[in-house]
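Narrative summary of target 7.
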Amino acid sequence: MTRYKGQLKATRTEIEFPHHVDITIPPGGLGTRLDAMYEFHAQHGVKPQRGHGKHDADSAVIRWCFADASLAAAFASKFKT
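Modeled conformation, tokenized:
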């Protein structure tokens, strides 16, 4: 499968955006929290960047990547449970 022009691979994204926030996905999904996460990016004028997630039988994790440590910390404080 090819990627859209300008879209980075997850490994490269994690290198270029070194501040990561891992969000655990509950069994029912993120629902409106996912919309709020994308809205957070829009409000701060940054393009959402996602890295490698983790999926196994018990849980799933989505990794958000940021270039700015303070923005990553703000995101984590708002959405990490």
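The first helix runs from residue 10 to 16.
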